[in-house]
Amino acid sequence: MKVEIISSKNVSSKKLSFISIYFLGINSVIGSGAFLLPQAIYKDMNLASVLVLLCAAITVSMVALCYADLSSRFTGSGAAWLYSYNAFGRFTGYELGIFTWFLGCCTLSAEVVALLTTLRSFLPIFDNHLVYYVSVFGLILLFSLINFFGRTLVKMVDNLSSAAKMITIIIFIIVGAFCIHFANFSPVIPHAAMTGAMPFAKHFGAAFSVVFYMFTGFSFIPIAAKQMTNPEKNIPRVLIAVMVSVTIMYSLMMVVAIGILGTSMANYSTPIANAFETGVGRWGYILVIAGMLISIFGVAFTASFNTPSLIASLASEHAMLPKWIGKRNKHDAPWVAIILTAVVSLILVTQSYLFLVSCIVLASFVQYVPSILAVIKFKHTNEFPNHGFKLPGKYIIPVLALLISCYMVTNFTIKTITVGVVVAVVAAVSYFFIKRDEEHEARHQEKLAKLRIKR
Question: 325 and 315 in contact (C-beta within 8 Å)?
């Protein structure tokens, strides 16, 4: 049975316009990575990291175009798991739903760790392990507690976070451009990466994986399609506009930061803030740090709300999980899902920021591959016709996107792959028991019906 329309108890009667979806997309893609990861990328590829960034942008844009094609076929919410459900059946949709929830938990944990990493850069008290872990655990528990009272604060915090992020980036690019020293653009590529093809591939791959993470948020844009005006036409346009905008901003941020700091960029945990401090003084550092903290807090808070909503929806609206997981309190908050999300996030938050980034990339990869395959299948079978956008070149873009996405596997560590396998296996085992319970309940109801007929 095919499913297209997916309802939501929290869908507002007021639909989101194109511009609202655009800013929602910008806020989904630009997170803590824009402020914290440039040093990790530069460490591997120096000035050539800008080229790596453009390569990653092209790669992710191919995947985004596949999502654009799929979103023009469906008006329902759900994105990757909805596409996979319709293309490959219930089990695949279920697995993708679980991985999307896991991706949300990783995002929440990564943003909380990023927040504390930022604070630790100028408040030495957070170097104390006890203070650090009490703070990260406390933030997740605080977010969970707030979410028990519904979505009153979510929109306000999300808008504030988006505004702070955009203003900070624009000021950094415009003002920082006047502080560039062109001598800092040397070396173009690290000497260690120039000793042979394999060392170069290793450095390029390491940088590529990190940059890839900085674009992954686009996949969240179609998740709330039912809340948007004319989603089959607006979402594809937004996906393209967001990818172009973010690529330009990331590239300019990278060029300005390298132009100000040069080789010393690899030494800073908050490279954008330190670059602005070097360029314009202490006020620049304070401005970027303030923008970062508001931005990261907002992304973490929004993730803490959206992630439980997804798993609750899978339980209560789509019957893919036990109904008790979707239970809501008097504030219409999915309290069981909030607790489950908090528990998983509390476990993940003990890991390093870069490891959480790799888990997010892995979970994104797991979403991308079935979605790309769904495009290929629908083009072949002509199921679910396009409305408003059609991917050009028939199979060329999805095949290239699939090949490049599979390249990501070569850059995952054993630890990251193990986490992915564990999530997939636990989800599959749970699905078996859920399916068995459903069949048992169906037989029980059938027996009751027969008894009623006899009477």
Answer: yes
